[in-house]
Amino acid sequence: VDDEVLTSAEYGAGLSFSVMNESAFALQKTLYTEYYGSDLNAWHDRMVSIYTRYNNDLGHTFNQKIVNHEYITSELTCTTYEDGTKVYVNYSFSEDATTPAGKVVPARDYLVVK
Question: pTM to 2 decimals?
Answer without folding.
Answer: 0.84
